[in-house]
């Protein structure tokens, strides 16, 4: 690692102030993305702001038809929470699919969403459920938040404090994972909430998480795996690497979408 100055702010305001004064500073939540890149000397932020002592950034609360989770809530806490398991079971399941136990006990919801890794799971949940990302300055709809690979709508000095997830009537997540990293080679999140049907894909797109509107329109007519039979997405814009070609990933999107819908309605996948 390169040398850096380490800060431990006590409040969100202190953290935001330090972040504004130091344009190249980085927030440290769980550190599961930042620290490895620093160890490899791929990143060298001069200032690190450790968020672990900031009060009020963790916790899970069910209010009305929304589940709100603090940004510093660990993956294992989301996975093990009886509140999450009852309100949005698929969110608990998704959290349990992230990395390994060591990663789940350190990584945080807010850190994952702020980093917006194109292979991460939480961006698919946020976009698939129509979540609202709440910061120290404003509320951002998921559709407006994710702007590209490792890119978000967050502005300088803006910090995620919590995320609000609407409770769906039906939802499921299917993940085809890299066996070494456990990142999503392709992950498809499907949700139905009234007339709002969403299909969000992670891992496949070269520009990060995205929605498949053609699948959504088909499912609005009938929420069934049969509605997606014969539907595909183009390979253009898909990731292609040693783990899978663009064509392979595009094919997997269709397969996993049908499986997710089948799981959501409680039927065995074809």
What fraction, in percent, of the residue positions are helical?
25-40%
Number of strands: 14
CATH superfamily of one domain: CO dehydrogenase flavoprotein, C-terminal domain
State the CATH architecture of one domain: 2-Layer Sandwich
Strand content: 15-25%
Write down the overall mean pLDDT: 95
**Adjacency order of strands in the biggest sheet:** 4-5-10-6-7
The CATH class of one domain turns out to be: Alpha Beta
CATH fold naming of one domain: Enolase-like, domain 1
Radius of gyration from the alpha-carbon trace, in angstroms: 18 Å
Task: Tell me about the largest β-sheet.
Answer: 5 strands, antiparallel
Shape, per Cα inertia axes = globular
The SS-based structural class is alpha+beta
């Amino acid at each position: 690692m390169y040398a850096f100055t380490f800060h431990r702010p006590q409040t969100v305001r202190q953290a935001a102030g330090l972040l504004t004064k130091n344009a190249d500073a980085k927030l440290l939540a769980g550190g599961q993305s930042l620290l490895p890149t620093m160890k490899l000397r791929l990143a060298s932020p001069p200032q690190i702001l450790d968020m672990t002592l900031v009060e009020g950034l963790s916790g899970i609360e069910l209010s009305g038809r929304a589940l709100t989770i603090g940004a510093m809530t660990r993956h294992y806490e989301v996975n093990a929470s009886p509140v999450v398991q009852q309100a949005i079971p698929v969110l608990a399941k998704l959290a349990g699919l992230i990395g390994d136990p060591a990663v789940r006990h350190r990584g945080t919801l807010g850190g994952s969403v702020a980093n917006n890794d194109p292979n991460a799971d939480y961006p698919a949940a946020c976009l698939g459920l129509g979540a609202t990302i709440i910061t120290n300055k404003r509320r951002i709809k998921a559709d407006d938040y994710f702007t590209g690979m490792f890119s978000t709508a967050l502005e300088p000095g803006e910090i995620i404090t919590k995320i609000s997830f609407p409770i769906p009537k039906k939802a499921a997540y299917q993940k085809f994972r890299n066996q070494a990293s456990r990142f999503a080679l392709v992950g498809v999140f499907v949700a139905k909430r009234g007339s709002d049907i969403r299909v969000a894909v992670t891992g496949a797109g070269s520009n990060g998480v995205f929605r498949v509107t053609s699948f959504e329109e088909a499912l609005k007519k009938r929420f069934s795996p049969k509605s997606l039979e014969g539907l595909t997405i183009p390979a253009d814009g898909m990731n292609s690497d040693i783990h899978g070609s663009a064509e392979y990933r595009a094919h997997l999107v269709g397969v996993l979408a049908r499986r997710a819908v089948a799981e959501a309605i409680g039927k065995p996948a074809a």
